[in-house]
């Protein structure tokens, strides 16, 4: 049985599985709390297809520290692991 993470996590089992896979607490909680965590939207442009400026703006929006010194490749990695 999964540990109860309180009201901040709606699906404790999913949260623990994602944390075991190495996801950050924030990302695991965001996925575990979504209504359809197994479905992908597929509508967004891939990070590799976006400009560095677009990636920088996205990193700023989600609060990634040190983004101004990151390369495009580093921004992609940071966004995927956030």
UniProtKB/TrEMBL annotation:
Residue ranges constituting the Rho termination factor-like N-terminal domain according to the UniProt record: 53-79
InterPro entries: DUF7218 (IPR055642), Rho-like_N (IPR011112), Rho_N_sf (IPR036269)
Pfam families attached to this UniProt entry: DUF7218, Rho_N
SUPFAM superfamilies: Rho N-terminal domain-like (SSF68912)
Bias (Basic and acidic residues): 10-29, 45-82
Region feature (Disordered): 1-82
Range of residues in the leader sequence: none
Protein name: Rho termination factor
